[in-house]
Design brief:
By secondary structure, the chain is mostly helical. The protein has helices at 5-16, 42-51, 54-58, 77-94, 99-108, 117-127, 134-149, 156-163, 174-198, 208-214, 218-232, 241-259, 268-284, 291-300, 302-311, 315-326. Helix 4 packs antiparallel against helix 5 and helix 13 (268-284) packs antiparallel against helix 15.
Length: 333
């Protein structure tokens, strides 16, 4: 019997990818062993499992920067994820690294993000006794919470890239390191775009010295950053020193003018209080948790169960839950 489609794909990978790439047939494996697919490589299966997960679908109603935006053109956590995946795949393709692995990590990197963006993350971090970090929660989602507690059983390489996409140690694969940089490239540039739509920033407000180095539009900046990454990533994933310095300055500019802007953040205090109220309520009354989280309560305690439940909420579901629990309802005769 001839080689399967998956085996032929793996042979092609060894022929066309860089020696520094992560090869699907050399994966360190899954948490639980399982039969191979005859068509898809292990990284392709991971990508598909993430796309078909309920936590991936919920990203479309989770805040990126602007809380519960009414306009059709503001980014959500889902559109951010898709932009990260596109940038990361472009870099991986140019460097002849594994696009399937890169895409899987990118699509899964924010599955554990809270409602209301980083405001929700800060709120849970303040009230959970062991703290809260969205990248650790993303790993918990794929390992434990998805598929009614069975998890997605992803490969080591995808799990490692998800867990290390934000801070701390670098991912063990170059593909994971691409996602970490691509995440930053995506959010800084689309946050500029959203801030301009919101009227809190203009392109010309960005210092001219930065625009001269990085570009004077979103597409120009992304192009500059991607090309610099491709040209300078020898043995690791990096930008040129000049581009890196300008990119860091742009991040500082965004922190001062958008990420801490009172107009952008005017509702965050309310969102944080809402998350804290929900957390305290379910810690005190774990019997009110949905059935799948009651098992977590029995196994790991009320705080863990409340944290998992709230972190998985969309913005609008969190508001509905809060209203149902704490806002008096009109009397209907």
């Amino acid at each position: 019997m001839g080689a399967s489609i998956r085996e032929e794909t793996c042979l092609i990978e060894h022929k066309i990818l860089s020696q520094n790439a992560s090869f699907a047939d050399c994966s360190r494996g899954r948490l639980k062993s399982e039969p191979e697919c005859s068509v898809r490589t292990v990284f392709q299966r991971d990508r598909d499992r993430i796309i078909h997960s309920s936590s991936f679908r919920r990203l479309k109603h989770k805040t990126q920067v602007f809380l519960s935006p009414e306009g059709d053109h503001y980014r959500t956590r889902l559109t951010h994820t898709l932009e990260v995946a596109q940038i990361a795949r472009t870099i991986a393709r140019c460097l002849r690294l594994n696009e399937d692995l890169t895409e899987a990590i990118a699509l899964g990197h924010d599955l554990g993000h809270t409602p209301f963006g980083h405001a929700g993350e800060r709120a849970l971090n303040e009230v959970c006794e062991n703290g809260f970090q969205h990248f650790s929660q993303s790993l918990r989602v794929v390992d434990i919470l998805e598929k009614d507690g069975k998890g997605l059983n992803l490969t080591y390489e995808v799990r490692n890239g998800i867990e290390r996409h934000t801070s701390g140690e670098d991912a063990v694969t170059l593909e994971g390191r691409i996602v970490r940089l691509s995440d930053r490239i995506a959010y800084i540039n689309h946050d500029i775009d959203d801030a301009c739509h919101a009227g809190v920033l203009r392109e010309n407000d960005i210092p001219l010295c930065l625009r001269n180095v990085l570009g004077k539009s979103k597409s120009d900046r992304i192009n500059t950053l991607v090309i610099s990454t491709v040209q300078n990533s020898v043995g690791d994933i990096r930008l040129s020193p000049e581009i890196q310095a300008a990119f860091d300055e742009l991040n500082t500019f965004m922190t001062n003018n958008v990420y801490t802007n009172p107009i952008c953040k005017s509702e965050e205090g309310k969102a944080m209080e809402m998350v804290k109220w929900l957390f305290n309520y379910f810690c005190e009354k774990p019997d009110r948790l949905p059935d799948e989280y009651k098992k977590i309560y029995l196994d790991s305690g009320a705080q863990r169960a409340a944290c998992d439940y709230i972190a998985g909420m969309t913005d609008r579901y969190a508001v509905k839950c809060f209203n149902d629990l704490f806002v008096p309802k009109s009397w209907v005769n």
